[in-house]
Design a protein that fits this description.
The structure is a homotrimer. Chain A is α/β, with parallel strands linked by helices and about 140 residues long. The first copy, chain A, has one domain (about 5-130): Macrophage Migration Inhibitory Factor (2-Layer Sandwich), CATH 3.30.429. Chain A has three helices and six strands. Chain A has helices spanning about 15-30, 80-95, 125-130; strands at about 5-10, 40-45, 50-55, 65-75, 105-110, 115. In chain A, strands 2-1-4-5 form a four-stranded mixed beta sheet, covered by helices on one side. The longest helix of chain A is centred in the N-terminal third of the chain and has 19 residues, at about 15-30. The radius of gyration of chain A is 17 Å and the shape is globular. Chains in contact: A-B, A-C, B-C. Chains A and B meet through helix 1, strand 2 and strand 6 of A and strand 3, helix 2 and strand 5 of B.
């Protein structure tokens, strides 16, 4: 379910791949996402048809190693879970891709179970919740 | 109003175009979107500067025919309407673009009327609601 | 904090850059975003691997000068602030990039403080709120 977009500068697709794995492994480790629940759009911007902008907001020194990670997922994760997620993304981005933690920018947008169709034209999460609901009297 | 991003693999822009029409027609048919209320970003990723990742989560076999459809729209649609929407997107993706329903992944993110400016620097939906509000006593 | 995606047609990266500045300056002027709080993904679509679709919905004549601006930010801005923001984006898009206001399409998606990590693996906004909370009895 998490649907993840990762945007970086440059043309290094190996780095992009490593960042995708970093984010996914962090989701699995910290908030219980199943290992095969992986849906990502990975984009490298080389300046020819687009680019990224950033600044040193909040005193964090950023450079062209910047990584934008935008995660859409269902609501329900606690603040502590999200904080663990951010920490682990930063750790694994460094371990897998050599990206410094200062350059890892993450934002989360939440929606609900009925807002997902994971194939075959059905709303799998909403159907599952309906099926698991209270039995009729 | 719906703002739609569609991401696919490959370089087949005809398929991408067909998928855009499939999603739009499904929005019109199932949740009452006006035919000319069409705002889409269509992107094909050929591996050179980005790619898509996916897995067989929930037992759905996916392959490089994967289509990510991310819809932003105002809140207010019922679960039944969304389920009809997903079903129809999958049907039309197959009919128009030859995409198998198992490869059609959809996620919806909702916001409110005041979160849209459809041109000319104004918030058309919020303005309309204000104008249609209760008359002053 | 605002995380902004801008999508245009064509290959004019100077125009894309000017649009990025227009949106950022409008955010600073109208809703109090700090000048160095700038995080943007700018993409030009040249038709080869993707494109934009649009129509004349609500009687607004659009053409290939269309600009899609998608802003993710924390909740809390008032409708009046958002309306000022849209107005100013349209004004500055014209001033900086020669884009006609009719072609400026903006949508806002909101989340919460804990949904942001602006580097170093921490949730800066949530941490700040926690630190500023009521002292223990």
């Amino acid at each position: 379910m998490p649907f993840v977009r990762i945007d970086v500068l440059g043309t290094d697709t190996d780095r992009l791949d490593a960042l995708g794995r970093a984010v996914h492994d962090a989701l699995v480790e910290t908030i219980g996402i199943p290992p095969d629940d992986r849906f990502q759009v990975l984009t490298a911007h080389d300046g020819g048809r687009g680019t990224l902008r950033y600044d040193d907001y909040l005193g964090v020194r950023r450079d062209d190693g910047i990584v934008y990670v935008a995660i859409t997922m269902r609501s329900g994760r606690t603040p502590a879970q999200k904080q663990a997620l951010y920490r682990r993304i930063a750790e694994l981005a460094e371990e897998y891709a050599g990206t410094e933690p200062r350059n890892v920018f993450v934002t989360v947008t939440e929606n609900e179970s009925v807002d997902w169709s994971l194939g075959n034209g059905v709303a799998q999460y909403a159907d599952a919740e309906g099926a698991a609901g209270p039995a009729p009297l």
